[in-house]
């Protein structure tokens, strides 16, 4: 079947991911999973009254702009007006705080994963559950709001994630995928639902039992990959395509978080497989064979889209500072009267980190901390470049230091998994950091001292992953998700694997030692540098 025939017959799947800096839409052929068209919209969080947030108006503005781009590409490439889509999936940044009352009115600003403002709540819940509750989890935000005696808490009728919110508005269904749900509240991997014992423990807390709502009732229903999660309503179709061209009735898969869609996009849903996703934040996901022996504040236990336990190492800061330096170099090129497209600038600077830099980055030290970092125990962030008079301050070393620093907090968590003797057969990188071939892949292999694979769809990320999950709804009765990915989606996929460069390991170790020893410098910057 030709691409045009797939479009005409609606044998397509649309994946939309609300990332931290970009809303991306990807339309795939549901028969061979090839990308037919894509669109995007750039956005960014805002620090408002000390809270990292996004306006929900921008959610819809961005979705419509992204879809309009995609629709225009379909018209340009195939001379076809897109009006019918078979399946749709929504993915987004996990965690945070989105609450609504009975009239569907938003009760508080959207508090994203980036906020480190729930230390008391996360600590008390972790102790109560004997289970790590990170500060960014929805339940930590809810309990902190209770501890803070926020008046709106008693009015809550529904609490969800960004993916769950968009899905709800498009379908009318208050549901979410189990991977996304595992960042809301702990999951029982046997029942494939919220952990009932922990729900009861939470309900018995003094501040909670006084509330007029029941915790499970206000949470979205948990669904597994492959389940039908509703259909696009007429109102929902206009939210995507205000022109009215898009027909209602498209089938939805359960909405998922960016962690789950990353696992799908890298074929990492089997035990002993894992992936590293690197964008504004960075996290690794490793599917566990056995429960961890201890509870670690650096390690989250979440779920695959089918409900298996996953060890997640999540660091809040990754590429924001790299992007800032790239903008600086682009400004210089403009001043110098030179014209280079952004991709060429990135490629040139990234490759210098691999070919011209010292392995230890010339004794430079960088922290790309735009916000607090839970793994390293810092409540706020200050981007820093630290060097001594003897440091080799070159562009190549600066870029290598930046990329090494992206992996600094992640390595602390991954070292814990090594001590736990967690077995990893395959680790796959994806996300924007891996778009430039070989560079971040090689440096990550050196940092973790393990082979790193990258697939041909590495840069497509979660939007492609949720499109795959959307297409899977039609096949779930025939194949497990793992079988579906292996035999259908990735059967002919090209994968490049890079081994650690053992000559560079001593220098890489030296940088990572410097990174951990220098955290006091970052703390001092927080204490002595005010933020407007």
From TrEMBL:
One GO MF term: kinase activity
Domain Carbohydrate kinase FGGY N-terminal: 13-236
All copies of domain Carbohydrate kinase FGGY C-terminal, residue ranges: 275-472
Keyword Kinase: yes
Pfam families, per database record: FGGY_C, FGGY_N
Keywords: Kinase, Transferase
Domain of life of the source: Bacteria
Gene3D superfamilies per UniProt: 3.30.420.40
InterPro entries: ATPase_NBD (IPR043129), FGGY_C (IPR018485), FGGY_Carb_Kinase (IPR050406), FGGY_N (IPR018484)
Single biological process term from Gene Ontology: carbohydrate metabolic process
Keyword Mitochondrion appears in the UniProt entry: no
Family named by the database record: Belongs to the FGGY kinase family.
Protein name: L-ribulokinase (Putative)
